[in-house]
Amino acid sequence: MVDWTHERYAAAAVTQIERMAGTVEGADFTTQVPTCPGWDLRQLVTHTGGVHRWAALMVGELAAERYDRAALEAGFAGLADGELAGWLREGAGLLDEALTAHPGDAPMWAWGGDRHVRFWSRRQLHETVVHHADAALALGVTFDIPEDVAVDGVEEFLDILPYARWRPEVRELTGDGETISWRTGSGAAWLITLGPEGFAYERSAARASATLHADTAAELLLLIWHRGELERQRMDGETKLLRWWADHSMI
C-alpha cells in the first residue's frame, strides 16, 4: 500500500500532467469529448491546464480565499493548437514549484474539508487523471491508471463529495442506514453507509443493501466520475439504490 504524502501527490500530479500532454500532442483539437458533453479537446486541455495554473497561483500565495478561475482561464483562448501540449507541460512545472515550496500542512483556502496545501496536491493529481481519461477516450487511444492512484482517487472522491455545494443533489445523499458496497476484482472494497446527516465510508467488503462490482479500482474510479456506463457493470441487491447514488453524486 502506498503511503501517500503531500510530496508523493505532487510528484504523481506532475507525472500525470506529462502523460496527458503526451496523449494530446499533435491531436485534432476540434475532436469532441463525449465524457464532457459540449466540449472539444481544446476546451478540455485549456480547462485542465487552467485549473493547474489556478491552483499553483493560490498555493504559491497561500491564498486565504478563492481566486477567480474564470478570469484566469479567459487569457488562454488565444493559444494555437500547436502550443497546447507544451503549455500543458509548462503548467506541470508551475504547479510543482508552488506545491513543493510549502509543507503539506500549511493552511490555505480549499473548497474541500482539508484546508491545507496538501488538498491541492491530491486534488490536482486526480483532476488530471480523470481529464487524461477524457482525452484518451475522445481520441480512442489506450491509457492506464495505476491501481494505487485509482484506489486513492476513489477515496478522494468520497472525501470531497460532501463539499460539492454547487450541486444541491449532493445534500440529498442521506438515508436511514442503507449501505452501498463498491468491490473490485483487484481486492479493494468500500462500504458506504447513508445516515440522516450524510454518508460515511470505510474500507470493507462487508455485505450491503446494494453492491457495484468493477474489475479494478481504475474502472471504478471512472464509473464514479461518470466516465463509464453503470448499466454495463454487475450490480447486486437494491440496484435502484446504486442508480440513485449515481444520479445524486455527479460533480
TrEMBL record:
SUPFAM superfamilies: DinB/YfiT-like putative metalloenzymes (SSF109854). InterPro entries: DinB/YfiT-like, Maleyloyr_isom, MDMPI_metal-binding. Pfam families: MDMPI_N. GO terms for cellular component: plasma membrane. Residues 11-136 form the Mycothiol-dependent maleylpyruvate isomerase metal-binding domain. It comes from Nonomuraea dietziae. This is Uncharacterized protein (TIGR03083 family). GO terms for molecular function: metal ion binding.
